[in-house]
Write a structure and sequence with these properties.
Length: about 675
Amino acid sequence: MTNTTPYPHLLSPLDLGFTTLQNRVLMGSMHTGLEEEPQGFKKLAAFYEARAKGDVGLIVTGGISPNFRGRVAPMGSELSKFWHVNKHKAITDAVHKYPTKICLQLLHTGRYAYHPFSVSASAIKAPINPFKPKALSERKIHSTIKDFAKSSKLAQEAGYDGVEIMGSEGYLINQFSCKRTNHRTDKWGGSIENRMRLGVEIVKAVREKVGKNFIIIFRLSLLDLVEGGNTWDEIVTMAKAIEAAGATIINTGIGWHEARVPTIATSVPRAAFTWVTKRLMGEVNVPLVATNRINMPDVAERVLAEGHSDMVSMARPFLADPDFVNKAAAGQADDINTCIGCNQACLDHVFEQKRATCLVNPQACYETELTFAKTPEPKNIAVIGAGPAGLAFSCYAAQRGHKVTLFDGASEIGGQFNYAKQVPGKEEFFETLRYFKRQLEEHNVDVHLDSYQDVESLRTRGYDELVFATGINPRTPNIPGINHPKVLSYLDVLKHHQPVGKKVAIIGAGGIGFDVATYLVEQESLTTNQQRWLKAWGIDTEYQNPGALLPIDHDLKHDREIYLMQRKETKVGANLGKTTGWIHRNTLKNHHVNMVPGVHYEQINDQGLVYSLQGEKKVLEVDNVIVCAGQESNDSLYQQLKDLGENCHLIGGADVAAELDAKRAIRQGAELAATI
Ligand code: FAD
Ligand code: NAP
Ligand code: SF4
């Protein structure tokens, strides 16, 4: 590539001596769940091939254990026997049809293993895992090192270009390197030289086994973000020793899984952690990789141009768009389907032991199952509603060759996403609407905004099929006084921007109740102010303390008093996303929002909200009561036209409003488009 490309740093090759990467983009390791599915490796091969076709420089696979005890879960994947090799060849053959290189990640989970056979440096249970590990004996440490070397050799035989040794995120090697989890008194504990010995000996053993011309990436934890983590001096010492032991590349690890600091959620500012990789630049000679919340080519280019690293790692952005690099190289960044950092279909799925996919790209990990072949019989289709469901359907159906006309009564596309994107920390939702707008243009969808549809307008036009994506109506709970002037709906606040008083009760603590509370307390989004965000979450950029932690800033100032209420007795926010719910809860806690479960709403009157709690009547004297009490399907138009004998389909919130999210809306739109 020459400097005429739009992203000269990102797209320049990287010479590793014995091999050259075509660009500076590393697709970071992601466990997809396909690793454990029957026929999963064929689907994995298609998944990785699509990313190689999209010109990623270097792919790192999801973590595969070098032995039984290191597996993520009892049925987790392992590469330790010669008969494991063949299925990996399907992946390497598929990727090597293109110039992309691929490394297998070797992951020993240590005390994060979700089974009773787990091991660690010391017998200390992780706070996020019920299983207590056994401390590895000296003999078992040596056999673990041998297992890493053997797996690497098998990976080489399977056609991989290298391995990544997972030494961060609080997994086994990281458990040895930190005092938090390593209380040993033998030569594997105590001084940093002893604590880092496991990682260093693994790299040495692997290098000895695989020879010179094989990539060894070591993922080193540059920020543990837990008490008892490593100091900066220790990290520099480790990096130098890892390089001397034979690593080719050092990748950055940020935060243990048990850390109570968000590291990849959508509310984390873009490229929030690359400063720590920059700190290591110049301490070692091997290329360094920066990571976390880099999701667009301009962000990646800036990281490299400002000397924060030699490569960038992006993982979820390649679930969202396999053609990220191609599009960047063609100067079409606007066409990139941007990862919005929601975790809803990727990490949340993995934690629920479901196959990973992507909220904005339902084809991810379904490359062989959800396809959009050209239709032999193009149809004339009207879509009513340009929210996520209608947008997804329209774009995929038009891509297949159907003639699609999309109507929305609103003046802009996006439906409820237009309210979501205003919530502090959800700025990324803008990107999805930018992407859909481009797709509508690209596939010649005929878009009519400010165009509310009714029975007559649709019946007279002679469409072959009508697709209703008309969304929802907010639920109005049956509480005496619900029409009192103090009462606002979440749409009054987020859509009509009606003034809200200083003391507020929010009825309903689902996703929208949390978002409205965040909107009311975070006058300036922390996500767009990196320094304030780092301070708010207690991240020590000066690295004065082990683990780089400072006390969390619990004194985030705002001038409102907010009560977030629900009828259920359970913890407020218990049903939020698995990997992000704790962040929403902590954000509101740090802003002193009062969470009130187990209430019975009695009345809304001039005084405020009257409710009872454990049989005791209370009056909350508030200026406003904001209703966020869930949603009901807006399907009446569909019912009427169906009754008139039209060919009708119903998708998204209009179909089922309960527990509706954009993930379901977009997938349902895509699945209908694939078959219509
Ligand atoms: P909608 O988005 O409701 O779109 C329906 C569209 O139909 C509207 O644009 C409407 O104008 C149009 N319409 C209706 N009737 C007619 C008619 N007769 N003629 C023409 N047009 C019509 N989901 C997540 O997954 N993650 C989140 O983090 C998240 N955060 C959210 C935050 C907020 C504040 C809100 C309000 C929602 C959030 N959601 C989130 C929910 C998500 O936005 C919805 O699940 C999704 O928008 C539903 O998509 P849909 O296409 O079914 O309906
Ligand atoms: P929701 O998650 O179903 O929450 C509705 C809330 O209202 C609950 O707290 C419920 O609690 C309460 N409620 C329900 N019926 C009520 C009634 N009759 N009277 C009083 N309270 C009532 O719905 P939502 O918050 O409107 O969100 C809609 C969808 O958008 C969600 O399903 C979610 O998936 C999606 N969303 C996701 C996110 C995210 O971050 N992933 C963010 C926003 C929205 P009680 O019944 O206990 O009172
Ligand atoms: Fe990114 Fe959300 Fe897709 Fe995961 S599900 S890859 S976080 S957009």
